[in-house]
Design a protein that fits this description.
Length: 258
């Protein structure tokens, strides 16, 4: 029986996936990458699931790609990165919002995993880095693109070009994470946020806003067209009618997900 590298917990309509490879600070081995992608796809396929929280076991979120697997990368081809591409594409396009709950370090691919999520909560012990330059490589899972979107060019280059870690306060002030709480409150805050998402909007609308938000990664004009399409789709749902009616009637909407 292969070692379980990702634990799955259900908290109401939220699934919590924990990277569970503490001996290697949850480094992303190929086995862990494949297992995490499968658990994410399973969660998103469940109509009752409204959000996924990603977190790490022990004192780390994730120390990045498993460096012990680098020697096998001589003459690496795009095929070698497929498992990583599948995982990061799955996180970035999941049908439900993804929330990173970070305690301890999120380095390299671990930091890129946080960036691929829709939002993030950090504990005061959290540290973020893209130290790949210190390995003679560069981030290969979106870090050079998503970090600029998250914190802006100047702060992104400070991290990318030096590989130096930043602390939780810096990450929060820079916009890399949305909330900064005490370490023992990280999961609680992530679950609270997931519950607010589930409680305040029908699944289809939450997906539409998430999908439209991701269009922000496209050039602006494409993003605006994508947003308008999703807006009009949402407007045509019975939930939108119910939401408007409930506001008019000063009552809580009874969404049906249609
Ligand atoms: C670069 C290519 C990756 C190869 C395979 C991928 C295929 C292609 C994919 C493309 C997309 C991926 C892009 C992402 C790339 C990366 O993430 S590169 C790696 C970036 N991360 C790092 O450089 C961090 C390396 N680790 C450290 O610097 C330190 O461990 C630490 C994080 C600062 C913590 O230090 P400390 O508290 O002193 O703990 P340690 O004793 O160093 O570590 C504890 C044990 O954990 C093991 N470990 C830590 N990090 C990794 C890791 N990234 N990979 C594998 N193992 C790791 C460490 O070896 C210790 O284990 P033991 O020695 O057995 O005790």
């Amino acid at each position: 029986m292969p070692e379980q590298l990702v634990t799955v917990e259900r908290h109401g309509t939220t699934v919590v996936l924990t990277l569970d490879r503490p001996s290697a600070l949850n480094a992303l081995s190929r086995a862990l990458v494949a297992e995490l992608a499968e658990r994410l796809e399973e969660a998103a396929a469940d109509e009752a699931v409204r959000a996924v929280v990603l977190t790490g076991s022990a004192k780390a979120f994730c120390a990045g790609a498993d460096i012990s697997e680098i020697p096998n990368m001589t003459g690496a081809s795009p095929l070698d990165t497929l498992p990583f591409d599948r995982l990061f594409d799955t996180v970035a396009t999941l049908r439900v919002p993804t929330i990173a709950a970070v305690r301890g370090l999120a380095f390299g691919g671990g930091c890129e995993l946080v960036l691929a999520c829709d939002t993030a909560v950090a504990g005061r012990s959290a540290r973020f880095a893209v130290p790949e330059v210190r390995l003679g490589v560069i981030p290969g899972a979106g870090g050079t693109q998503r970090l600029v979107h998250a914190v802006g060019k100047a702060k992104a280059m400070r991290m990318l070009a030096t590989g130096a870690p930043v602390d939780a306060e810096w990450a929060y002030a820079a916009g890399l994470v949305a909330d900064l709480v005490d370490d023992d409150q990280v999961l609680h805050r992530a679950l609270e946020l997931a519950g607010q998402i589930a409680g305040n909007a029908p699944r289809a609308v939450a997906y539409a806003v998430d999908s439209a938000r991701r269009a922000n990664d496209l050039p602006l004009h494409q993003g605006l067209a994508h947003e308008r399409r999703n807006f009009l789709l949402a407007l045509g749902t019975s939930d939108a009618q119910e939401g408007v009616a409930a506001f008019t009637d000063r009552r809580t909407p009874a969404f049906t997900g249609r």
